[in-house]
């Protein structure tokens, strides 16, 4: 994990990665011109075979966000992930070379696994906020399965729904496989401080795993940015310029990041 994942050099994970809504006030072109999508994959209507979504939203502070606010926080969560990814890289290096840093092998691996558990929590927070951009709230109930990890499972199940707007980016293929493996490791490693035995780190290709997830989030970011651009254009065309500028500028509040993450069910 010593290098930025391949293909992400010009992404939101790269140095100086910036919001795609910066300076996003529409030009003076005719409103009859279509807004370019950020992704070639449009959202599709749900197929008749798709299971119904749970209409009950999560009763946390996050559910009160409108799509613009959710996108703003999604950007902040991605910035936090970018910051934590650098930490995870150095942690992984220490875990694979513990003697070089004066750690016992067991202690080094244990600390890295705790770091990875925290990193996955931010991945999940970013996914929840991304879904909220499209008005999708993740159920805490037992719609898909029962057990202690229902909420974490439901986050991934929402992405795997064929009608999910970011299904192509995060709900299928290698990206989804990486998310599934990351959740499995999160569950396996969350009790590592209790001394439970787990396979050594060298058994996992964590560089590939994290790179796939960040790449999928980058594609999802583009789709969400396209959706927000369309919403901004519609408001602009309706003459609601003050609302447009207020929503685009957003706020720089970061306090939500240090509040207890009550959106997560252990």
UniProtKB/TrEMBL annotation:
<feature type="region of interest" description="Disordered">
    <location>
        <begin position="1"/>
        <end position="61"/>
    </location>
</feature>
<protein>
    <submittedName>
        <fullName>Uncharacterized protein</fullName>
    </submittedName>
</protein>
<feature type="compositionally biased region" description="Pro residues">
    <location>
        <begin position="43"/>
        <end position="54"/>
    </location>
</feature>
<feature type="compositionally biased region" description="Polar residues">
    <location>
        <begin position="21"/>
        <end position="33"/>
    </location>
</feature>
